[in-house]
Amino acid sequence: MSAASALSEWGVGLPDVSQFSGGASNLTYLLRYPKKDLVLRRPPAGTKAAGAHDMGREYRIQSWLAPVFPYVPPTVGHCADEAVMGSEFYVMERMIGNIPRKDFDGTPTPAEVREMCTNTLDLLVSLHAVDPAQAGLAWLGKGSGYVERQIIGWSARYRNALTENVSGMEDIIAWLVAKQPADSGSCLIHNDFRFDNVVFSESDPTRPVALLDWELATIGDPLMDLGSALAYWVEATDDDDWQVFRLQPTNAAGMLTRAEVVAYYMERSGLDVTPEQWTFYEVFGLFRLAGIAQQIYYRYHHGQTTNERFGSFCMFVNMLGERARTLIRSASWEP
What we know:
By secondary structure, the protein is an alpha+beta fold. It folds into two domains: 13-93, Phosphorylase Kinase, domain 1 (2-Layer Sandwich), CATH 3.30.200.20; 110-330, Aminoglycoside phosphotransferase (APH), C-terminal lobe (Aminoglycoside 3'-phosphotransferase, Chain: A, domain 2). Helices cover 40% and strands 12% of the residues. The protein has ten helices and nine strands. It has helices spanning 3-10, 55-65, 110-128, 146-160, 170-179, 222-230, 240-244, 258-269, 275-301, 313-330; strands at 16-19, 27-32, 37-42, 75-79, 89-93, 187-189, 198-200, 208-211, 218-220. The strands form three sheets. A five-stranded antiparallel beta sheet has the order 1-2-3-5-4, with helices on one face. Strands 6-9 form a two-stranded antiparallel ribbon. Strand 1 (16-19) and strand 2 form a beta hairpin. Helix 4 runs parallel beside helix 9 (275-301) and helix 6 crosses helix 9 (275-301).
């Protein structure tokens, strides 16, 4: 889009700028022009893991995926010159709709909640069915061995971000290494699939219209994607400590349980896994989330961010470790 056509579409003048709350990784800003709203994404301040927060990569994924997957927000432009605003960034169109947060704003019925849940899982299934080559994204793939690479990579990230008030997870890492299966498949995965990354229609709150936050998208194992998504899934029957850290309305009446999510996904995707085999993917999801939370806490611990809500992440990391150990103790699966 040329500068002249952009000014015509958005309106003349500087935008009103505000930051979206809720994110814990890349920073996201709303740019309000007279005629159109845009969204800007940029990395956080402080120490970053190698290869993380690559705005150019995220921009390319969205731009190339959009023609074959209509739930991707259209991109506007990418700036690699850090002199412009202190970091690389990109801009996309704002998708209008509702994004579920910790609790629903309204009072959907259990039937509506269930439909929203199954429609969201169908969105994940449809993403996993995309042909990466058709989207021009075959370059994301690194060949077989995705499960092994993820264990190695997240083990290193967790160790590098350890602080003295967080327990090590060498026992969990050893179990994952010993129990790792071969890849269950290879497809385009989102790697951060949560309700608060889904935009739902204003006219039909059960229907997804967009999937956001493509920072971690890659070609990998679909069951690893599902396991990572379910690490955030706090059910109504989970204890009070887990409810404190709940980020999405997965405890609402009508919402599928974690076991029901797995069964529904398997039926819709055509994949098959026993409950015993599923334990590996669930434990990995918890360990990966612990690694993500610990990296965020590391920035807080060392004064690289002042967001007070990150101060309790050390407790969350320890809780994730204990939940993973509980699953391991109950597991009998041999790969």
